[in-house]
Amino acid sequence: MEFIRCPTDSWDAVQRTKDVSPQLNQATIIDLHPSSTYNIRMYAKNRIGKSEASNELTITTDEAAPDGPPIDVVLESLSSQCIRVTWKAPKKHLQNGLIRGYQIGYREYSTGGNYQFNIISMETTGDSELYTLDNLKKFTQYGVVVQACNRAGTGPSSQEIIATTLEDVPSRPPDNVQANAISPEAISLSWSMPPKEALNGILQGYRVIYWANLPDGELGEIRNVTTIQVTLELDGLEKFTNYSIQVLAFTRAGDGVRSEQIFTRTKEDVPGPPGGVKAAAASATIVVVSWLAPLKMNGIIWKYTIFCSHPYPTDSTFKWRVVTSESQASFGLLLSEL
């Protein structure tokens, strides 16, 4: 018995033979290649010689699961939640049949972990294939393998390849934001880093956003300060002024979520001078003094003090006369006995 593989072999160049006992009327040929076509012919032999060849038989072996993995597997991170997987079919001689689909396995990658692969099946579309994994965790390493499938089964996995989804902005604000007024012009701030799983990237620093809430209901200029620390001192602030403060973390992808507003008032300081001070004589011994509240009160006004003296004192021991208005709402006073 002689047999060759079609169409690659020819009777003249390559052939394989198998001797069969004359008592048998059938034989089994082994070690053939799956999903391959063979031509078979037989001869009868005796002491004189070999007969002419029989008519050729053509037969195709059944498929077997692929013996080789897909090749040229490449991962490309498209976004913070998507990775594109591309590959090519296994080498032809290892396909063992018609490749009809693929299985893509992916998992969060951890050198010490034992995570099972999530499996996605897809039908083949050609020699070069691609699939996009989505809804992945942000800024997370994933391992990916690919297997080819035919009617007989699934072949071996490609080598696991690692890729990391892209960075994104933090999805949570810094924790435990606290503010404390330490002087009339300064506020001390502190906070904690957001949970690591909410950073979605490499932390680059923090941004503090703050503005004054003015007495007339208007908002002051919105300012921001960047720092890599979890504490900060805001200085150069307006005295005895209520400030709104927010803190956010940021990565290379941008600013994250702001914390809830907290409100802190700077400490009191001495007031500025009263404005519009006027004096008018009411009689030979009485003067009426009026004034306006200081432009910068810097706190709660409890009283006003008026100092008066003769412009040309004749007594070298003359001292200033001090009169106090105990009402914080008073903007005038009558000076008598002058």
From TrEMBL:
SMART domains: FN3 (SM00060). Signal peptide: none annotated. One of its GO terms (molecular function) is cell-cell adhesion mediator activity. One of its GO terms (biological process) is brain development. Keywords: Disulfide bond. Pfam families: fn3. Residues 1-64, 69-168, 173-269, 273-338 form the Fibronectin type-III domain. One of its GO terms (cellular component) is plasma membrane. It comes from the Eukaryota. InterPro entries: FN3_dom, FN3_sf, Ig-like_fold. This is Fibronectin type-III domain-containing protein.
